[in-house]
Structure formats: structure tokens, C-alpha cells
Amino acid sequence: MVSLKNVNELTAYLIHLGQMQFKGRVDLRTTKGKNWSLYYWLGRIVWATGGLHPCRRWYRLGIRYCPEIDLNSIWITDEIRLPVWDYQLLTVLRAREEISREQAIAIIKSIVGEVLFDSAARKSQ
């Protein structure tokens, strides 16, 4: 866990990880107990999760980008494991060809963007 005081330090740290071709997970936490995780591959953020309502975020974005899927009827309990259930759900839907590559990419970009925005906004408070 890295302790960063403000959004400028967070930004500099994330840029540094990119330049170092970092692979792995970075956990962010505010003093008020909010948590996020960023997943890197070769210096690029490939997934993000956490925050106050990750289930709501996934559901909202699933409805936006995959309106043809009834998200309330998905049954994949044997294939999903914590703590990255949201990423695994996306990969299962993609493997089953229930969503397209483009839909998966749109969801990934939106989730990463929201998590980065939320974590930066919380760091500046």
C-alpha cells in the first residue's frame, strides 16, 4: 500500500509505474477507508476495481454497453471467484461469446476511467 497525500502525487506515481513497465496490482486507500485496486500489465492499466459501489457500477455499465443481456439472469457461480469477480464476469461473458470484444473493451475503459476519476477526486479532498 502506497501512501500518497494528493492527486498530484497520485498522478506522478501512476505515470512512474507506466514508465517502469510495471506488472501487478496497486492498492489505493483514502484516510476515510475507501479502497481501489489498479491492475497493470507492462505499464498499462488493464483493470480497476473498488470504490463504494462496484456492483452498481458494473450493472450500470453492463446495461449501457450490453443491453441485449439480462444481467439479472446471469448464472456463473462456479466460474467466478473473489476478489476480482467483476473482471472474471466480463471474461466469462466474453468466452461464452455473449458479448463482443468491442463491448468488453468499452466496459473496461469505462470502469478504469471511473475508478481513476473517483480515486483522484477522493485524494484531492
Can you tell me the number of structural domains? 1
Residue runs with pLDDT of under 50 for 5 or more positions = none
H and E string: HEEEHHH
Q: By helix and strand content, what is the structural category?
A: alpha+beta
Residues in helix, %: 40-55%
Give the count of helical stretches: 4
Apparent shape: globular
The termini sit apart by 19 Å
Mean pLDDT metric:
84
- Biggest sheet: strands side by side, in what order? 1-2-3
Rg over C-alpha atoms, rounded to the nearest angstrom: 15 Å
Q: What is the strand content? A: 15-25%
Largest sheet: 3 strands, antiparallel
Please provide a written account of the structure.
By secondary structure, the protein is of the alpha+beta class. It has one domain. It contains four helices and three strands. The chain has helices at 7-19, 54-65, 85-95, 101-123, and strands at residues 24-29, 35-41, 44-50. It has a three-stranded antiparallel beta sheet. The longest helix is centred in the last third of the chain and has 23 residues, at 101-123. The protein is globular. The two termini are 19 Å apart. The mean pLDDT is 84.
